[in-house]
Design a protein that fits this description.
- The protein is mainly β.
- Helix content is 0%, strand content 50%.
- Strands 2, 4, 5, 6, 9, 10 and 11 form a 7-stranded mixed β-sheet that branches. A 4-stranded antiparallel β-sheet has the order 1-3-8-7, with no helix packed on it.
Length: 127
């Protein structure tokens, strides 16, 4: 049974930082692209960042480029999202997701392409 468990969310002031973690089990972690998505109240779930197998193929939403960094530790089956210079508009529930892919270069920003999802962790940025 595949499980993705996020942690690290919380309340932070604007300009602050948080580091989210997502621990995976029940899958061959090193053969999955991993992504982070977020959903604010009343809005659609949107893409934030994604990483290919080895971490060499990365994608970011324009809204977080230069502020957020995705990384992964395949030995620990964990993916991270370092979030710096946080803004109130970053407030959302953050979800990690896994997508089985055929190569280390393959990574998608499309929500429907991801097969497995975590339960989410709340990030609140106060102004």
């Amino acid at each position: 049974q595949v499980q993705l468990v996020e942690s690290g969310g919380g309340l932070v002031q604007a300009g602050g930082s948080l580091r989210l973690s997502c621990a995976a089990s029940g899958l061959t972690f090193s053969r999955y692209a991993l992504g982070w998505f977020r959903q604010a109240p009343g809005k659609e779930r949107e893409f934030v960042a994604a990483s290919g197998w080895s971490g060499g193929s990365l994608r970011y939403a324009d809204s977080v480029k230069g502020r957020f960094t995705i990384s992964r530790d395949n030995a620990k089956n964990t993916v991270f999202l370092q979030m710096n210079s946080l803004k109130p508009e970053d407030t959302a529930v953050y979800y990690c997701a896994a997508d089985i892919t055929r190569s280390s270069l393959e990574v998608t920003t499309t929500r429907s392409e991801y097969q497995y999802w975590g339960q989410g962790t709340q990030v609140t940025v106060s102004s």
